[in-house]
Amino acid sequence: MNPKILVFAGSIRTGAYSGQTADAAMKELAQQGAEVTRISLADYPLPIMDEDLEKEKGIPENVYRLGRLIAAHDGVLIASPEYNASIPPLLKNTVDWVSRLSKDGGRALRPWSGKPVGLCSSSDGNFAGIRGLYHLRAVLMNCRADIVTPQCSVARAQDAFDADGNFKEERLRGMMEAVCRTLIERARMLSTRVEV
Question: Where does the record locate the signal sequence feature (predicted)?
Fold first, then answer.
């Protein structure tokens, strides 16, 4: 089985390092035989998570669209930037909204539950976004996602990529290869894909 993996970045800024990292992950996953879907969260705008809003207007349609996409894939890879040593608000808001789903029409829909997730990070500093991944890992585990252990964190990201978007350093290539390989293996083993 060629697993279906959904890839997105936690930033929608033009030229974002997390977007470049997501692109590198997409290439590596495809090279390892996965069927990859690359999306941008810019295509799924959401209001700030607010239970009063949810009660008044219901869960936004873009949450359902994202939830169905996650459910229709065997695994997810998220490339995140780091804001103040934590999760960027766009990504946290997206994760929180998707976690509100329990049903889609008459069918159960809990997109994060049991879903294999691989994590990458990037920053222009030496910490490589690792502190933000610590928090993201905890949040996703609380949503019952199955987070793979290897991760790829890109320090000094402004100098990390060549003109073709590939990593210059062998060490980073090895880290990305490991997280993608582990995610593919886990996705094959624990496939919870729901055709929607």
Answer: none
